[in-house]
Design brief:
single chain; 264 residues; alpha+beta; Arc Repressor Mutant, subunit A; Beta-Lactamase; 2 domains; 6-stranded antiparallel sheet; two-stranded antiparallel ribbon; HTH_MetabolicPath_Reg; DNA binding
Amino acid sequence: MDHDAPTRPVKTVQTAFEIVLTLRDLTEATVTELASELDLAKSTVHRHLMTLTEQGWVVRDGAQYRVGLRFLDVGIATRNANPIYRYTCDRVADLAEKTGEKAWCIVEQNGRGVHLYGESGTSPVQTYARPGQLTYLHQHAAGKSILANRPREEVERIIEVHGLPEITDQTITDPDELFEELEKTRRRGVAFNEEESVVGLNAVGAAITDQSGYALGAISISAPVARLQPEEMESDIAELLIETVNEIEINMEYAGGQDEYPLE
């Protein structure tokens, strides 16, 4: 049996997740609003909401429904079980304190970036990024540093599946240009994001790799353009990030982290 062959999704499960994600985006909604948003029959939405509510995944307040805090338990447990989180959370906090800016740890899953953990310094800029947020890897410094330390054929598959969506005028949307940028990233050890994800925001990212050089995740520091100019990105911040990821990699290797907590 070919376990990698495409299978048809279980429709009821797919609908349940669509309802949950829509509630997340809307904060709260009625049965009628969900049915309209998802183009489903109100009876279908109601049945799914009843089951989700009974299991604690959704809560009801009068006619309004919203996502339940049971998801928080699953999310925290999932994050805490990730070896990258356990070996980077303190280092991310240190980076935020030293720079006064926003520091993130990002990992790749199913070809997308996931904001695993972030810390704010004394002068951080607030953006849309939040723990658990899915991103496109090519749009961010941390994501590009991950792509730069993955095999070319893997990066090509990610592009084939997810494309190279544009989020600002500076986002790289051409595959050839992206591969050129990834080559530069490998040579200098860090990736740059110059207003490619948020207008007015620059960032530097560095990959956390295993002994073979394969990227397991990445950390980044972001700041307004006025506070993070190219010369700082290429010197002080880059050196700080490289020093930090080297420390993380040593800790993971000699503490037995990669063997004890294997990634999927």
